[in-house]
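Researcher: Quick test of sequence recovery. Tokens follow.
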């Protein structure tokens, strides 16, 4: 019974977040910028993956310097929990400026997961769903936080998932073009 209540709570929480995200995405940001700079971020935080697999996590991300279709831009994510697991994903981030300096960004990245000594997530193809909030400085550098969930979306019978909370700093980074 407790497992059913937990799953119902998680389902309702995810549903609420999705509805709020759709509401925010349906409105046009008054503070949106038209030409973002590429960003390279590095961060660290805490991975929550059960009593035997929780611990620290380090991640790097690169966000392209051009928007696709509104305020969506591609990103690459590389995360390493302390259990020597690896997640590498390529996805999209939607950026919404709440003010001239505060950026809200839900993002989604399918990717590959290598277990290492970490938790068996049931399948090598995993999906990372994240919510990010950041403060943007005048030089376009950012400091912020992310909460994300990685799971295989029930592609296999085993789908325990992992959650992480990360604090990051992002720097403008021009990789071969301006």
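Model:
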């Amino acid at each position: 019974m407790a497992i059913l209540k937990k799953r119902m709570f998680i389902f309702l929480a995810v549903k609420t977040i999705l509805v709020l995200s759709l509401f925010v995405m349906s409105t046009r940001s008054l503070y949106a910028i038209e030409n973002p700079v590429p960003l390279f971020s590095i961060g660290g935080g805490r991975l929550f993956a059960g009593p035997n697999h929780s611990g620290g996590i380090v991640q790097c991300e690169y966000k392209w310097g051009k928007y696709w279709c509104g305020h969506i831009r591609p990103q690459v994510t590389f995360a390493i929990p302390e259990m020597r697991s690896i997640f590498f994903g390529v996805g999209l981030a939607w950026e919404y400026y709440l003010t001239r300096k505060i950026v809200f960004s839900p993002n989604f990245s399918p990717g590959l997961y290598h277990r290492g000594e970490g938790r068996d997530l049931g399948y090598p193809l995993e999906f990372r769903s994240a919510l990010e909030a950041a403060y943007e400085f005048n030089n376009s550098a950012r400091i912020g936080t992310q909460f994300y969930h990685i799971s295989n979306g029930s592609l296999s019978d085993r789908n325990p998932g992992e959650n992480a909370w990360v604090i990051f700093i992002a720097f403008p980074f021009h990789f071969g073009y301006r």
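Residues 67 and 153 are 27 Å apart (CA to CA).
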